[in-house]
Amino acid sequence: MPVEAIAKGAGMGFLLSLMVGPVFFGLIETSIKKGFWSALFFAIGILAGDASLIFIAYKGSSLISISDDAHFAFKIIGGCLMMGLGLFKIFKRTHSTPENEKVFTIESEHFMRSIIKGLFLNAINPAVMFFWAGMVVVAKSEFPAKEDSITFFLCILGTLFFTDTLKAFLARYLRALVTPKLVNMVSRGVGVVFVIFGVWMMVRK
After folding, report:
1. Among 52, 56, 86, 127, which residue's CB has the most CB atoms within a 10 Å radius?
2. How far is 23 from 176, CA to CA, in rounded Å?
3. Spatial separation of the C-alpha atoms in residues 54 and 60, rounded to whole Å
4. Are 124 and 85 in contact (CB under 8 A)?
5. DSSP classification of residue 99
6. What is the dihedral angle through the alpha carbons of 188, 189, 191, 195, rounded to the nearest 10 degrees?
7. Which DSSP category does 145 fall into?
8. Residue pLDDT, tens place only, 69-122
């Protein structure tokens, strides 16, 4: 039933929004450093990435069988990319002068660059792809009607985008406390998280 698909999709979207991972930290960091609008476009990139993966998984679920070797290769490649991104953030610093030690200036960013960042962060994590592939299998068994399955995924994505937008909006209020030194610390912390996730992606079964 459409009502059941809406309820379950919104519920699943809310549960997923509570997960803390690379996307969460990337979103918060973007909101603090680049501003709300950059974070919003970052969230749009995340949304587009999720929607693309769902579409690919849905269309290919009955045609494609991923071997264990391919799964292992995806984990290694994704883990290395995640670690590389983390190391870049750890060693990159926001340049500051004595005049701006107490005032942090927002660095504007082109909206397409923010969207691409969101897409990239999703694309390099094979766990996201396999998660959505699993969700497609669940949705097809739970909702035999194609329209209900589509409604289910639209509600998941809609809820995720709403909560990501809310996170980006609330994070901007931290800006009054932000200095270049604190931004460096946040970026380094985010980088450490990315490295940890990269290692975890490679060693987990």
Report:
1. 86
2. 23
3. 10
4. yes
5. G
6. 130
7. S
8. 666 766 676 667 768 777 877 776 655 444 444 444 445 567 788 888 888 877
